[in-house]
């Protein structure tokens, strides 16, 4: 009898030890909320791929201080409500220590009260200014996509240099287009630029000839188009077909080789402010971003046979910031937040060189863009 | 004048797309009195299949078109066999319309799974610079679309008025019970109407993709625009819905040009509402005609 008791005690003891051993190997959980389906799926897809790729690399290299990393990826279906539900699930059920995403500005805005209340750091992958401003009310929120206004500033600076004073703007009627339009209208006076035509179109519209012509007839010396996806290719094709004789500028959403393929010769001469991920091979070797751009692009291409693009880059930066914080301060949400706010300085990422501070939770400005022109079906950096 | 002409041509381009979709609506409406709200998805299917045959496995243009239309017809057939036929006799038309919405969601999901979410495009039928007429430009592909719209109209006219099969289909539409009593196989007619409308919608996709590109979720908007065009012209008449398509396209373009581009969809839908309120039979037929034609 006593032998039995001893045996059982022994068993319990062993289980406890085993359990403890498991406990220290228990994975660190971080959450990601991405627009994998729905209208913003073209953004969410490369972001998801990037995060899966990086998580695999980190775990292969031994995880974070010996503990494996587990990324719980939730599909927000590009909807605010679904993003909110996903965030609640990740925080309450899965107990994640940080959240990456969401992919779009609207969804990110919807999550601000939730993560703030739960005191979980969130690194959004969307560009909207309101995500991290006013920074006093965005204690737990960061973002890795450049501000729309930085892209606008980059374009206007270039125009100033070239003596372009009157522009016509075409913006798509989505969150992206609205934000871009707002920045374009607000910043124009600062650079001595007049907006002579302010035209709009809807997602999935099939012809923008009318808007382009109106802008030209209003005396525009250049066109700026603000959209992502097939619409920007249609604008490019219409611009080319009309032989307008004035340059076409696209937003920072232009940076995909797919656009060049689809637009073909029509894309010749189109100018856009682009993140360095799309032109990394044309950067000088000593550029601080070149090394990580090269290794990211190449490992992504090897695994997915497609380019990660700007959006994959946003996910890369957010993920690596969290990983670095986890390595340095461990899985504690408040410490992760403090680390990201205070220690991401001169930090070369994919989207630019980050300088996050208590005053700026994005840390990127207009210098994170290069002005790029399309020449012979490829990108060329404009000096 | 030059500006007006350009707005007009731009409207014709968009209008031709709407017209082809509206025609697809009409074919099914004429035989079953239901609306196939998966019409837009068939357009997308056409564009994506065409891309696959042309760009992925490099078949000649003609062969690709025929294969694309053939497969789309088969999908139309499958849709009718699996979802419409078992319920046609017993269910309310409203329920059948809901089923077509369900089918559209299913088809969209499958297309997303097969083709991903990127936009696709391929070269137009004839390459070359756009034509310039009176100072305004028009893309060559648009002329091809006009040609195919015309060809479609001709085909439908001959089919519904000169062949026994087409006349039988019309009979089903007017009174399916009497048609059955006369020995017409109604369920076969419904089947043919779904195949035909699948083929015409996918033809629209094949033709417009070089201009507008296609991605898996472009369908719903096309469905709405095609439907608006069909209501504008008056469901039931092929010439009517075709004219409705062009009219809607031109109106949108003129509104965008002379008023504001942000208002074009709102004003077009306002027009649809006022049509439904004041002249529900459409612009081109009287309400008696519409009543005789339907229900």
What does it look like?
The complex is a heterodimer of chains A (383) and B (295). Chain A contains 12 helices and 14 strands. By secondary structure, chain A is of the alpha/beta class. In chain A, strands 2-1-3-4-5 form a 5-stranded parallel sheet, sandwiched between helices. In chain A, strands 7-6-8-9 form a 4-stranded parallel sheet, sandwiched between helices. The relative contact order of chain A is 0.12. By secondary structure, chain B is mainly alpha-helical. Chain B has one domain: ABC transporter involved in vitamin B12 uptake, BtuC (Orthogonal Bundle). Chain B has a two-stranded antiparallel sheet with strand order 1-2. The longest helix of chain B has 31 residues, at 2-32. The mean pLDDT of chain B is 87.
Task: Map the helices and strands.
The complex is a heterodimer of chains A (383) and B (295).
Chain A: H1 2-24, E1 28-34, H2 41-60, E2 69-75, H3 80-93, E3 99-100, H4 105-118, E4 122-124, E5 141-143, H5 148-162, E6 166-172, H6 175-187, E7 194-201, H7 209-217, E8 222-226, H8 230-241, E9 248-250, H9 257-263, E10 271-275, H10 290-304, H11 309-329, H12 333-343, E11 347-348, E12 353-354, E13 369-375, E14 378-381
Helix pairs in contact in A: 2-11, 3-4, 5-6, 8-9, 11-12
Chain B: H1 2-32, H2 39-56, H3 61-88, H4 93-115, E1 131-133, E2 136-138, H5 140-162, H6 164-174, H7 176-181, H8 186-212, H9 219-233, H10 238-259, H11 264-278, H12 287-293
Antiparallel strand pairs in B: 1-2
Helix pairs in contact in B: 1-5, 1-6, 1-8, 1-9, 1-10, 2-3, 2-4, 2-8, 2-9, 3-4, 3-8, 5-6, 5-8, 6-8, 9-10, 10-11
List keywords for this structure.
heterodimer, A: 383 residues, alpha/beta, Rossmann fold, 2 domains, five-stranded parallel β-sheet, four-stranded parallel β-sheet, 14 strands, 45% helix, elongated, B: 295 residues, mainly alpha, ABC transporter involved in vitamin B12 uptake, BtuC, two-stranded antiparallel ribbon, globular
